[in-house]
Design a protein that fits this description.
The chain is an alpha/beta fold. It is 46% helix and 11% strand. Strand 6, helix 8 and strand 7 form a beta-alpha-beta unit.
């Protein structure tokens, strides 16, 4: 069966048919098996054969050649059904990210079977709070980072490199270096380069106070193409109110300008945390960062974790939240239709998809909180078919990505359901390994039971492409499957 049509079947609830689940799980297991003759997984061997890295029949066994033929047919059917040009197939094969996504899809079929929402065979994206040190003391810090202190608990360079090797072995696609403030790690550039050399796409999230031209050069040369900078107000009064260090605003604005003038990053993302005192500035902030040279705008919300527990009282009212998200939804829709605006993503507010859905009459809405689906690289690859593609798979890969294709890591190597859940440690990657935690952890497996959501999240018409923030549900009620009480609906 065609790969994407599998996803469509999921959305029609036929995915519960035992015979279909068994057939697809068997397919996944076949491609996930290690071939001792070819000394790799059958999927990797098949792809290498299809892109002619292994041209001679003697380099690949008969079984793997047959698997390569079947995989080629599946991918050609995919292109045919969606009207993509067949001459793009070689581009599809050769793209490392695409190959890893499909590989983890087959691995997910093998490990978890056909389910809704779908669980990948390993996380595709990891956010790593690589240090617990920071030069700011933000009121809402989910990591409860140490202010200008040296932490003895952060992993050593040797340990951090071992973590990266383990992530690469699980075919991780993107690794975001976060914190604390990641630029306070003396070996940061070395770790970023190490990740790049293992085929992982590195990015960084920073407060930009330590950013200068030399640092930008180091980041770029290490492999960073995407940088996210936090900005929470249009003035020192509003920004520094949350950051609690005098002069933070001026240093951050300078850092943004330096990164924009540097001009080599593919993505310059500005992120704002929504509060009850800066919500009126968000529309102006959006326009301001666009003028500064930002390529994307993120809006996050306060979370009741870390120091955010005592600051959650500043979460805006439902009405305020709806109004702000409505404005940003209009910006997103316009960015897709007219390319006149920069892209918008929200964090901790998957209900943003519902607002986009309503305003666009169901034609434009983000795939999830990690990726909208309308990014230039995707639209170039999938041409004008991307909207239809997103709608076909939205019930399978949308909403909160925690435990499905995304996890967090803390500075000690502990695996977290998401990067903001620093108080929920699922096991240490160095001691237990990522595969074991991903496959067997009881918390992750509970989070994945999205069909068993409760309360208003279970009744909402947007449950297929939203589903609410699972961390918020857990922190507010002690139940991962309860309603997201931060939702303004």
């Amino acid at each position: 069966m065609l790969l994407v049509e599998i996803m469509v079947v999921l959305s029609r609830n036929i995915y519960q048919a035992p015979f279909l689940k068994q057939i697809l799980q068997t397919l996944g297991r076949n491609y996930s098996k290690y071939c001792h003759k070819c000394k790799s997984t059958r999927y990797d061997v098949a792809i290498s054969y299809l892109i002619e890295e292994k041209k001679n029949k003697g380099e690949i066994c008969l079984k793997c050649r047959l698997k390569a033929g079947i995989l080629s047919i599946i991918i050609k059917m995919f292109f045919f059904v969606y009207g993509f040009e067949l001459n793009k197939i070689s581009q599809f094969y050769s793209n490392t990210r695409t190959r890893r996504v499909i590989k983890n899809f087959f691995k997910g079929l093998a490990l978890f079977g056909l389910r809704k929402p779908f669980t990948m065979g390993a996380p595709l994206s990891v956010v790593w709070n690589v240090t617990s040190n920071c030069n700011l003391k933000c009121s809402h810090c989910f990591a409860d980072a140490n202010f200008n202190q040296h932490s003895e608990s952060d992993l050593s360079t040797k340990e951090a490199k071992k973590v990266i090797r383990m992530l690469a072995a699980n075919d991780i696609i993107t690794l975001n270096f976060c914190g604390g403030e990641p630029l306070m790690r003396n070996d940061l550039f070395e770790l970023i380069s190490y990740a790049r050399d293992f085929g992982i796409s590195p990015s960084i999230s920073t407060n930009a106070t330590l950013l200068n031209k030399e640092v930008c050069e180091e980041l770029y040369n290490s492999g960073v193409r995407s940088i996210t900078i936090s900005l929470d107000g249009l003035s020192a009064k509003s920004h520094d109110h949350l950051r609690n260090v005098k002069g933070a605003y001026d240093m951050t604005i300078n850092g943004i300008k330096v990164a924009a003038e540097f001009g080599k990053f593919d993505e310059l993302i500005i992120a704002t945390t929504l509060t009850d005192y800066n919500h009126s500035e968000v529309p102006l902030l959006y326009d301001y960062v666009k003028e500064l040279g930002a390529t994307r705008y993120y809006l996050g919300r306060l979370l009741p974790v870390g120091r955010g527990k005592s600051y959650i009282k500043h979460d805006p009212s439902p009405e305020v939240k709806r109004n702000v998200l409505k404005l940003l939804a209009q910006k997103l829709i316009k960015s897709v239709r007219d390319k006149d605006e920069i892209m918008v993503i929200t964090r901790g507010m998957p209900y943003f998809s519902r607002i986009c859905y309503e305003l666009s009459s169901g034609s434009i809405y983000p795939l999830c909180e990690l990726i909208t689906g309308y990014e230039t690289k995707l639209t170039d690859a999938f041409e004008n078919k991307i909207a239809n593609f997103i709608q076909r798979i939205s019930s399978v890969f949308s909403g909160c990505a925690a435990g499905l294709f995304y996890i967090g890591l803390d500075s000690q190597g502990n695996v977290l359901p998401c990067a903001t859940s620093s108080h929920i440690k699922l096991g240490n990657i160095l001691n237990q390994g990522l595969h074991d935690i991903w496959l067997n952890n009881s918390t992750l497996n509970l989070i994945r039971e999205r069909r068993k959501k409760k309360g208003k999240c279970a009744r909402c018409f947007g449950k297929e492409f939203c589903g609410g923030c699972r961390l918020t549900a857990y922190n507010m009620t002690g139940d991962w499957l309860e309603s997201d009480f931060s939702c303004p609906y």
